[in-house]
Structure formats: C-alpha cells, structure tokens
Specification:
2 copies of one chain form a homodimer. The first copy, chain A, is α/β, with parallel strands linked by helices. Chain A is built from 14 helices and 12 strands. Chains A, B: This is Phosphoesterase RecJ domain-containing protein.
C-alpha cells in the first residue's frame, strides 16, 4: 500500500507542479474531512509556489471556521474560476458533489484531479486517487506532503489533516482506522507540536444549549422493540419548534439509540413535516440495514442507510420495525 | 523519556522474575485502565512462567467483563494471598486504593511494586514506576513487553492495553495523549491485528435504556450562567427513582454541559439524598476549578475537581455559581 501511495502521489505532484494557479474544491455541505484536506492542500500548493484558491459553494460550518483562518475559503465566482489553470476536487466521488464546479467545467473545460475515499468514483477526471479503504481524504493528503517534502507540513496543515482524520473516524474509533492511520495521527501530533484536545475541543465541544435541549427530548423517546434487538428514537417538528432548532441539530443523534447495550440495530425517525425521514444503523454483522432500507425505497451501506416514509410517525415506526423484524427472524433461521 | 522507561522497566522485570507467584491488584471501583493493565500484566507474567493471580475487591464493570475472559479476576482471599511471593499494584497511588490488600500486607509483609500515573505517589513500596505525564497505566505497561520481549504481546494483551489507553484519554482526545501514546496505539492495533471499533464498541456502546432516559432528564436541566460562561446540569434523587438508575449511571454526564460552545466551565450537581455532590470541569486555562472547589471544601485538579455542599440544591447552585463568578471577574481584571 505504501508503494501504491508513493506512485500515485508522485504522479499527482508532477501534474500539479505544471500549473501557476490551482482551484481546490471541497464538497458541498462541507465537513471536517473535506475542509481539512482542502486547507492542507492549499497550504501545500502555496509552499510549492503555486497560487491556490479554496472554493466551496456553502458556508464553512461553525465548528470548522478556525480552519478557514489557516487558508481563506471562498464562494466560487466566474472571475476566480477563470484564473485557475486546473482544479483539485477533494472528498467527493463525482462532479455534482462540488456544486457550481460541475456547471462551470462544462463551459470551460480544464484539467481536474480528484482525491477521495468514497466508493464508485466517477472515471472522467484527468487523474484520480480514489482509495475506498482510506479512513479519510485527510489521511490520503498526508502522502502529498510525505512524497514531496515532509518539512513543508507546518503546524496549521498538521491540525487541518488531523481534523479530517478525527471527524471521519468518530474520534479514531471506526473500523476504517488502521495501524497506518494511527501512526499518521501520531506524526501529525509530533510535527504539528500539538495535543489532540486542541482539535477535539474545537470540533466537538460546540453544541448549542438549544441542541442539547433537543437531544434531551429526543433521548426521552428511545424505546426498544423485538426483544430489545431494535432501538428506536424520534424527533418531531414540535420538538424543533419548542427548542428553536433545525434538522441540522439532529446530526449524530442516531448514535444514542445505537449505544444501547445488546441491541443489533437502531433507527432515528424524523417527522419534520414532509413525511418521515429515517436513519438506520446496524452494529451487528447479522443485520444489513441497506437491505432493510431498500424495502422502504431507501438505501446506503450495510451498517448505515437512510429511507423515507409518507407517515404518519406512529405507523411508520410500526411498519419499519416489522420489516426489520423479518430480517432478524431470517437471521435466526439461517 | 524512552531511556528512562527502559531503565525503570528493566529493573521491574528483573525483580519480578525472582518470584514463582505474583498477586496483581487493580484499584477498587475498577475502570478500563486498571483492568486492562492488570490483565496484560498477568498475561506477561504467565508468558514468563510466573504464576499470576489477578485480584480486585469489587466486581469488574459490565462493559469490561470481556477482559476478564482473557485472564480471570477474583476477589482476594486469605489462601490465595498467602500463595503470593510479591504483589504488583496497578493504577493507584497508595495502598488504600487497593482495598483488602492494605489490611493483608500489614499482617504479612511482602515485596510490593507499583506502576501508576497519578500524582503524589506513596513512597513506601519496594519499587515504583510512577509517571504522572503518562496518559494511562496501560501506556506504561506496554513498556513491560517492549523492554523484555515484544513477541510476548499477544492479541488479548494488546486489546487489554488498548482499552486502558482509550478509556483514560476520552478516546484519545485528552491533552495527556502524546505522539508516543498514539504511536503505541498504532503498535497495539498492528500487533493485536484488530481495529479500534472492536474495543470501542464493547467499552462505550453499553448504555442501558434507563441510563439514556436519566441522561435525557438531566440534559433537560442544563442552563447557562454568568453571561453564558458557566454551564450547570443537575440530577436529583427523584430522577434516579423515575428511571430506576443509580449514581453510577451518571458517569460521564458532566461532559454534556461541558460541550456547550463558548463556556469556560461546567458543573454537574447531584442531589441524591445526603447534601449535594458536584463535579466541576474547566475548559479554559483562565478557570482553575481546583481553586474554586477548595473554597467549598473540595479539591482536585485545575481542569477537574469535586466538592460537597449541604444543600438544598437551589441554594447550592446559586452559591457555587457565585463563587465561580468571582474567579471569572478576577480573571477579567488580571
């Protein structure tokens, strides 16, 4: 794998060094991994005397704004886009994940490079580094420095890369974290001269009081079904209104029902107006929530999927749990 | 530091190899770090043909029972204690942290060794490795293997050590985590051939439904004081009764008020019958909660302290917040 990375990144480095100006996009509705990778990539370009623009259609989330102090992130405009000789797309597997980039590039085709770790990558880019097994795009971008000149990795870039590894792995807890991931995290701490709490507190200790009150209400709804194998939690429009919160404030909530001891799967239902959206999570190899979600017209991955149901809430819960129960039964029989 | 560890652990290794039978104690009210260190140390002794007993006065917590499958942990009894030629005490800084050990040793003195990372260690042991800067006792015990024969570190011992590092660092997020800690975590994953989720899910995904309902009620009480600088949360006896929970179920709750964006300190008050116990936490270098707690007759560390107040709850909150406010004012002036 190390050799494969060296080969891929050497090729990317040679390509990028041809240009005077490069536009670097993070995906729409940005998260810690794409913003971290974007900031570090721009700092790398700058270190190598290549002018860099960091673009995103959307605002940087509140808990990541400090990263934009390391390198400014702007909304793309015609004039800036025209100045770019090439583009780098980070942490997304197809042009449409990058908003106005996908429109612009049709009128004014320019070389585009992608670095990403999502499955099923679009194959029309000029060069792509797509490694599904990587914990994060930030883990990949570390090799951009490693293969060129590791001394160009400064404190800011180290913290940016650490942020993406941290946020895309649930604090280094997911099964995507390899010994190599952990060893890169160690190198980032050493090179950057910081401790993990500096990044973790900025990224995670940023709840609003309203959000905690919403979480309180939602957590009170958790119930277990099917012999305590399925945990269900819900959020209603009324709860959002009572706590002055929005759908975005539900981020991460599904982890709470999923943390109940002994369960195999958890579902968060959100009845926010237009039917009921749901997030399905499995913590058992026996339960494939992708199969489950597909039966309701949704889909995703084995351990994490989503779906929609016309509602109302009570019927939705009953129906979705029953569909899950069938899968639990077929597991018991197999 | 590496040289210092080598020297200390070589000395400990030579001492332990003199004995046929060693009793290994983890501290009373055990946690992931002491149990992980205990299991790994017993496996190390076994690998080196030394008979090992793992002792604890208390039960192993539910979320750590799987570690006791790697090496049996028993309550100390006269007969087993008599069989031991020496004792090793793990993750506690004085004999009284080890329950019945401290009584037994007075009647039947035997060589005792300590490995720990708490401040102010008792200095009467025959040999101690006490490193306050270490993230965890498990990080220290890794060097027992490293200095002797790293090939003796098997999958079980690696998972045991990983558990202690994980639980004592809030999932590798505290400021006690150094590049060295992270690099040891990487080695444990590599040598043990496992991924972090295997340990993290066992250790952290073990909430009872009742505990989540208690957390729901407690989270609903969070309020901000002193220009949103202090977050307060409380738990009452009635809440425990309504949710069929105990004081133990409040473990970790103080992290929720502490996660509110922009605050400097958080307090969890527990009015469970006999006055009001409180946990004070700071996330600002400006606020020393040890000084704060001392004014109410408590104490601890700068960032984490505890205290007791006769109550009732409402007056306690008012008084404790006012004392904290003085400190915030004196900070503003300094």
């Amino acid at each position: 794998m190390a050799f494969q990375y060296a080969y891929m990144f050497n090729e990317l480095i040679q390509k990028l060094k041809q240009y005077d100006t490069v536009g670097v996009f993070s995906h729409i509705r940005p998260d810690g991994d794409c913003i971290g990778a974007q900031v570090a990539t721009c700092l790398w370009l700058q270190e190598n005397d290549i002018r860099a623009f960091a673009f995103n259609d959307d605002d940087v989330p509140l808990n990541l704004k400090w990263l934009a102090d390391y390198y400014p992130i702007r909304q793309p405009d015609e004039k800036s886009l025209q100045k770019c000789d090439a583009f780098v797309l980070l942490d997304g597997n197809s042009p449409k994940r990058f908003g106005s980039y996908s429109d612009y590039i049709q009128d004014d085709p320019k070389p585009t490079y992608m670095v990403d770790h999502h499955p099923d990558p679009y194959d029309g880019f000029d060069f792509s580094i797509s490694v599904e097994e990587a914990s994060s795009t930030c883990e990949l971008i570390f090799h951009l420095f490693l293969q060129n000149d590791i001394s160009q990795l400064n404190e800011d870039a180290a913290k940016a890369l650490y942020t993406g590894i941290l946020t895309d792995t649930g604090s280094l807890q997911y099964d995507s974290v390899t010994p190599e991931t952990m060893s890169i995290a160690s190198e980032l701490l050493r090179i950057g001269g910081f401790r993990p709490n500096e990044v973790a507190e900025r990224v995670f200790s940023n709840k609003s009081l309203n959000q905690l009150h919403l979480l309180s209400k939602a957590m009170g709804t958790i119930e277990l079904y099917e012999d305590n194998q399925i945990a269900v939690m819900y959020v209603t429009k009324e709860m959002l209104e009572e706590t002055n919160t929005t759908n975005d404030d539900c981020e991460g909530f599904v982890g709470y029902p999923l943390s109940v001891t002994g369960i195999k799967a958890a579902i968060l239902f959100k009845a926010l107006g237009d039917g009921v959206k749901m997030s399905l999570r499995s913590k058992s190899n026996d339960v494939n929530v992708n199969k489950w979600a597909r039966k309701i017209g949704g889909g995703g991955h084995k351990k994490a999927s989503g779906a929609w149901h016309p509602g109302p809430l009570e019927e939705t819960i009953k129906e979705v749990v029953e569909i899950g129960a069938e899968q639990l039964v077929s597991v018991d029989k197999s």
